[in-house]
TrEMBL record:
This is Extracellular calcium-sensing receptor-like isoform X1. It comes from the Eukaryota.
């Protein structure tokens, strides 16, 4: 129940008077002194509260504070030391003294509000000045927990009383609209989460768990951390909250999540008091392999370090340490003998030495003692003043108020900051006047410059602390780096990696990832319904690469490039064409051999041109056929080599014209053969229409048709070099595009038409009398010719790459050899082997056996 003091006004016959009546009990300060200016202090001297049972029938009993915290008492004593030190100085607050009153918040918001109300009302509640005039309290130092500070600041705000927190880091307290009188000498969590996010990035910890306390500190820290890692590769595996009302069942559920998760790095935003019982259950569950990241609230908690050995290797950011002179000697003076009436001193003695002092008024089951006992090891941190951090913040906060008051006192009328350039009345100083000077304060202490920004925050600076176990077995807090928020972006965090000792005595940096990184050549494929940090590594598709680890997508290679086997780089595509390789050279040799063989036959025929076997059926046609066949063999050579514009146009036109010429000559010879045997019939005078001149005209006209087709082809849509990248994506196939498919097939169709006509006529004359009927050989030659080119069509269409050209060359050579052997082999055989048959009588079948 919150105790509120109401000002009740009573009217009398003389005048209106006022008096303050307390509504319930209130606590007296733990420590207090008197002086000219009073500041308050609120510290969590106990870390938990026992709420009394209530039946709502009668007024509940007062909540009881339990669990004495020696370190918080240490902080409270620091405030007393700083005030005494300032009062003894001649250069700070001369002729004036500071007074203080210190209260216990029991680390809970409700008790913190009770404490601040007690501080506001002063020592004598009945005679309190709260109902009129300035507040007896000019400022307040507190609190450690952010939730408590929120309550205290909101309670002080109507009275415009400034407060300086020594350990409340919640970023929410930087909101000047909600907390206009709040200041702090500890950095905001906005900077702590930035430091932690940079720490996670530095060690490539992308899969983390987060455990927070169920207070504003934990909630706002989590929000800040999520904001910092939002556009990074870091993901939250889980977030669990230590319940405000501690229950074993809820904690076991949290530990089950931690045990089953693959996240090995756990960030904890919690106070020491909330985290201690959680770790007790953690030990019982035998969870191993966790790398703890501590927030500044527990990173230097000696009690945790001494109690839980598995926390070695913990790393986290601690607030900056400083020097508090004379602190150890001062705290040694706080004994039950000197303060017999203060229960907290008795509790301190019981906690430190495990015995109850003889002067104690508390009921205790501990043995009594004299006050000369040896300090217990687990509480040795209470006496350790070598590297104070929170203690140093309390020290700075007191000096901030002292310097502000000093500047207020030094003000001269006519040069003041208030209305009409006035100064504060030293006999009635208002807290809001002190706040004005507090906002503008700047002083140096222990080599550090202390001031506040527009939000009331101090300059952010942290030490990176690593928990390391010494040879003697004691846990030590070793500084292994620092974070300076005043540095440029990216340079704030400095880490001495070689000085860090990791958890579980590991020598390497712990790994905490949901999925191992994808090597070059692979890309990430996010698992459906899971975090972005959980993915599978999928090989890049053919023609795509990834040359970095953890690539989100694969890059397509340029058109003339292709991916290598590992898909890590683009290499230039193989350019393929029918070159003078093994295949090309073979075809070249065959073509040259065919041409040479044809010329040899031509030479034999020229040498024996007067013999009957040569003169039969017009020797001139035979010579034309042999010359055209020579060109047919040689035109195959144009198809070998890198295609160019001229070679593409020449290869198809030369091939079509030479073959048309050859087939036209054969057609002419077939007509002559057919006419010669038909002319032997009485009354038939057909041979006069097939003389040499007419034969030449037939050959010329048939060839001219093909020439005209080729001319139109070259003019309208000529063949051209073509880079085929689609048929086989890993290669660039250099070939000749025919340009016009219609023209190409017209050329082949016309040659086929001539061959078919020739075949038909030769077939009719195949059974005509005579020992050497050339029609039979023409028939065979046309069968071979047509067979070759009919087989060529499907082979040409289906052959890949350079084999397309090779098939066309093969068809040219095969058909040429077919014509050569069918038409001239029998004649050469008679000329060279059977010269006795090379007579007119033998050829016409009139030889006498």
């Amino acid at each position: 129940m919150i105790h509120i003091f109401l000002c009740i006004f009573h009217l009398s016959s003389a005048a209106m008077t006022s008096r303050c009546i307390p509504r319930g009990n209130f606590d007296l300060p733990v420590f207090m002194t008197s002086g000219d200016f009073t500041i308050g202090g609120i510290f969590p001297l106990h870390y938990r509260v026992e709420l009394p049972p209530t039946d709502y029938m009668k007024k509940p009993l007062t909540a009881m504070c339990r669990g004495f915290d020696p370190m918080a008492f240490h902080w409270a004593l620091t405030m007393g030391l700083a005030v005494e030190e300032i009062n003894n100085r001649k250069d700070l607050l001369p002729e004036h003294t500071l007074a203080y009153r210190i209260f216990d918040s029991c680390a809970t918001p409700v008790m913190a509000q009770k404490a601040v109300l007690a501080a506001l009302n002063g020592q004598d509640v009945v005679q309190s000045f709260m109902c009129s005039g300035a507040s007896p309290l000019l400022g307040l130092i507190g609190e450690s927990g952010s939730s408590q500070s929120i309550v205290v600041s909101r309670t002080l705000e109507p009275f415009r009383i400034p407060m300086i927190s020594y350990f409340s880091t919640c970023s929410c307290l930087s909101d000047r609209k909600q907390f206009p009188t709040f200041f702090r000498v500890v950095p905001s969590d906005d900077y702590q989460v930035k430091a932690i996010a940079q720490l996670l990035k530095r060690f490539d910890w992308t899969w983390i768990g987060v455990v927070t306390e169920d207070h504003d500190y934990g909630r706002f820290a989590l929000q800040g951390l999520k904001r910092e890692i939002e556009n990074t590769k870091i993901c939250l595996a889980y977030h669990e909250m230590i319940p405000k009302d501690y229950t074993q069942e809820r904690v076991l559920k949290i530990l089950k999540v931690m045990k089953e998760s693959t996240a090995k790095v756990v960030v904890v935003f919690s106070g020491e008091g909330e985290f201690y019982p959680f770790l007790t259950e953690f030990v019982a569950q035998n969870i191993t392999g966790i790398q703890w990241i501590a927030s500044e609230a527990w990173v230097t908690a000696s009690m945790l370090a001494e109690t839980y050995s598995f926390l070695d290797g913990t790393i986290g950011f601690a607030i900056r340490q400083g020097h508090v002179p004379g602190l150890q000697d001062y705290i040694r003076t706080v004994t039950p003998e000197r303060y017999p009436s203060i229960p907290q001193v008795q509790e301190l003695w019981e906690a430190l030495y495990g015995c109850s002092p003889s002067t104690s008024t508390l009921s205790s089951h501990l043995p009594s003692c004299t006050g000369k006992e040896i300090l217990r090891k687990e509480y040795s941190a209470y006496m350790n003043t070598s590297s104070p951090r929170v203690t140093y913040n309390v020290y700075k906060a007191v000096y901030a108020f002292a310097h502000s008051l000093h500047n207020l006192i030094e003000c001269r009328n006519g040069h003041g900051p208030f209305e009409n350039l006035s100064c504060a009345n030293l006999n009635n100083v208002f807290p809001w006047q002190l706040q004005h000077y507090l906002q503008e304060i700047s002083f140096s202490i222990s080599g550090e410059e202390v001031n506040f920004d527009i939000k009331g925050d101090a300059i952010p600076s942290y030490d990176l602390i690593n928990w390391q176990r010494s040879a003697s077995g004691d846990m030590q807090f070793i500084k292994v780096g620092l974070y300076d928020g005043a540095q440029h972006s990216g340079k704030e965090l400095v880490i001495e990696k070689q000085a860090i000792a990791w958890s579980n005595q590991q020598t390497k940096v712990p790994v905490s990832v949901c999925s191992n990184g994808c090597t070059p050549g692979y890309r990430k494929a996010v698992r459906h319904g899971q975090s972005l940090c959980c993915f599978d590594c999928v090989p890049c598709d053919i023609g795509k690469i990834s040359n970095q680890t953890d690539s989100v997508d694969c890059l397509s290679c340029p058109e003339d490039y292709w991916s290598n086997v590992n898909r890590t780089e683009c290499i230039q595509k193989v350019i393929e064409f029918l070159s003078h390789d093994a295949m090309g050279m073979t075809l070249t040799v065959i073509a040259v051999a065919g041409a040479f063989l044809t010329i040899t036959v031509l030479g034999i025929f020229l040498y024996n041109k007067g013999t009957p076997i040569v003169r039969v059926n017009n020797s001139e046609l035979s010579f034309f056929i042999l010359v055209s066949l020579t060109f047919c063999f040689l035109c195959a050579l144009i198809f070998i080599g890198e295609p160019t514009s001229w070679s593409c146009m020449l290869r198809h036109t030369a091939f079509s014209i030479t073959f048309s010429l050859c087939i036209s000559c054969i057609l002419g010879k077939t007509l002559v053969v057919l006419a010669a045997f038909t002319a032997t019939r009485p009354g038939n005078n057909i041979m006069k229409w097939l003389g040499p001149t007419q034969q030449r005209i037939i050959i010329f006209c048939c060839t001219l048709v093909q020439v005209l087709i080729c001319t139109v082809w070259l003019v309208v849509s000529p063949p051209f070099p073509y880079r085929n990248t689609k048929y086989q994506q890993s290669k660039i196939i250099l070939d000749c595009s025919v340009g016009s498919d219609l023209a190409f097939w017209c050329v082949l169709g016309y040659i086929g038409l001539l061959a078919c006509v020739c075949f038909f006529l030769a077939f009719l004359a195949r059974k005509l009398p005579g020992n050497f009927n050339e029609a039979k050989y023409i028939t065979f030659s046309m069968i071979i010719f047509c067979t070759v080119w009919l087989a060529f069509v499907p082979a040409y269409v289906s052959s890949p790459g350079k084999f397309t050209t090779a098939v066309e060359i093969f068809a040219i050579l095969a058909s040429s050899f077919g014509l050569l052997f069918c038409l001239f082999a029998p004649k050469c055989y008679i000329i060279l082997v059977k010269p006795e048959k090379n007579t007119k009588q033998h050829l016409i079948g009139k030889v006498t056996k």
